[in-house]
Amino acid sequence: MVQPFSKLGIESLPEPLTNTRLCEKCQCSLTCSLLQKSSDDPISHLRTSKEMSEFVDLTTIHLSPTHLEYAKKWLKWSILEWETAKRKKKLNDIFMDAPEKREENGNCLANVRLIKCEEIGSQNLHLSFSKRSGNLPHGIFEKGEVVTVSTRTSYAILMGPIISYESQVVTIRVDKFNLRLNNFYHLDKYEGYSTYGLHLGNIVGLMDATPYSTKIRELVIDKRTPTFVTLAKEDVLKVGSIIKELEGNQARAVVKGLTCKDYLLIQGLPGSGKTTTIVALVRCLLRLGRSVLLTAYTNSAVDNMVIRLKKFISEDQILRVASNSVHPDIRPLTLESKIASLSSQRDVVFEETRRILEKTPVIATTCLMASSNSLFLWRRFDVCIVDEASLALQTAVIKPISLANSFVLVGDSRQLAPLVLNNAAKSQGMTVSLLEHLAESCVEGALISLNKQFRMNKQICGLSSTLFYENTLICANMEIENRVVEIGSQENVPFNLSNNG
Ligand code: SF4
């Protein structure tokens, strides 16, 4: 389903046939039928004959009007988004054009100086850049847009969202990395341009007649109430020691994750230990002999979870699937590394590769890689866990969750929403993540809020809690409540303020 969209481009789709003799065996019949059912702009050129209308009705007979409405809405939004991205993209090619040329095209901030590097928690940095000449070009980036950081010789060293874009300073959030203060860099818009076909393919995949897609439609579109079972006594004994390490709500979330038959939502407020909870859940699932598809929207979030997880499990138990380079600490967990040490005999390599792909209980990858890698055409899992679920479009999350018998979405709907460029799609609701969509009507017990945080003292926490979390965010204990940074001397300042412009 994905291939036709990714290769064709929507404006070049031909009109459907009027005679349906060939359509019976066509691999794209569901895609074609859904597009014809979505007859509003911008695809109204797809006119149909009576014979074709009957074929379309037959092909989509397993779908209710509500399912068709969901497909129509998301096909329309995805196509609008694709068209907008194409218009904005122009000649945004960081490999072909000089930074100054890319800036002229409105897709890059060239030659910006790194003036400040601020640590945010243990994993992230806020990097602030400014132009030597003073003011930044107006409106080139918007808050929330994702950019890459490059030099003239190294491309896309880092990637992250824009936290603020002021007249003279732009600040982005990235994973921890060693960039030199006062050096010059280029910030380019990142557009996952080739991914639009995957989003469209995922909508079509959701509408197919398999039992897996049928179940996801029931849960996501019909909003069937999720069900839970009781954990058997012998299973409690197997996982008890892991759960005891956790704070109250984290422990509840893990128990719920082990007992859910359909789905669980975890709203992880800032500093509340989302990754700790995910890691504990995966360890418990492994002890119970269950397989896990561990995903997130970005590669850095996947790497972060894997780095934490690998302290507790053996390398045999996890495989990191990625198309780009992964964090050096987890490189041994990729398929390439795992088979690199084998003899060059083809049979041996083939057998070992098959064993790894079939038997490794935890596969870690991004949501979009789960939509495109051929491994996921045949491998299924007991549980899919999606981190950053509030950051991803519904169409990105649908595919990984349909690969498992139950799923757990983890995120924070009060933080960054999915990035949508098209204003019409944005205003009509495309930015509502699956986490937010399901949380709106979720039953008691299927949504756990991790509201005890370990990061901020009482004053800072209180501000955040009052402004964004209706006073629900609290400190995990007295020690956190009263924590302060002692700045007795210049040595205690985490970075050199005098270098920060
Ligand atoms: S189903 Fe659609 S795409 Fe396939 S042969 Fe028929 S008209 Fe062409």
List the helices and strands and how they pair.
Layout: H1 2-8, H2 29-37, H3 50-59, H4 65-89, H5 99-104, E1 108-120, E2 124-131, E3 146-150, E4 158-165, E5 169-175, E6 184-189, H6 196-206, H7 211-220, H8 233-243, H9 248-259, E7 263-268, H10 274-287, E8 292-296, H11 299-309, E9 318-320, H12 335-340, H13 346-359, E10 362-366, H14 367-372, E11 381-387, H15 394-402, E12 404-411, H16 423-428, H17 434-439, E13 447-450, E14 452-453, H18 458-468, E15 474-475, H19 478-481
Parallel strand pairs: 7-12, 7-13, 8-10, 8-11, 9-10, 11-12, 14-15
Antiparallel strand pairs: 1-2, 1-6, 2-5, 3-4, 3-6, 4-5
This protein binds iron/sulfur cluster.
How would you explain this protein's 3D organization?
With about 500 residues, the chain is an alpha/beta fold. The chain is about 40% helix and about 20% strand. It has a seven-stranded parallel beta sheet with strand order 9-10-8-11-12-7-13, with helices on both faces. A six-stranded antiparallel barrel has the order 1-2-5-4-3-6. Strands 14-15 form a two-stranded parallel sheet. Strand 14, helix 18 (about 460-470) and strand 15 form a beta-alpha-beta unit. The radius of gyration is 24 Å and the shape is globular. Mean pLDDT is about 85; it is low at about 1-10 and about 495-500. Bound molecules: iron/sulfur cluster. Iron/sulfur cluster (SF4) binds next to helix 2. Pfam families: AAA_11 (PF13086), AAA_12 (PF13087). Belongs to the DNA2/NAM7 helicase family. This is DNA replication ATP-dependent helicase/nuclease. GO terms for molecular function: 5'-3' DNA helicase activity; ATP binding; hydrolase activity. Keywords: ATP-binding, Helicase, Hydrolase, Nucleotide-binding.
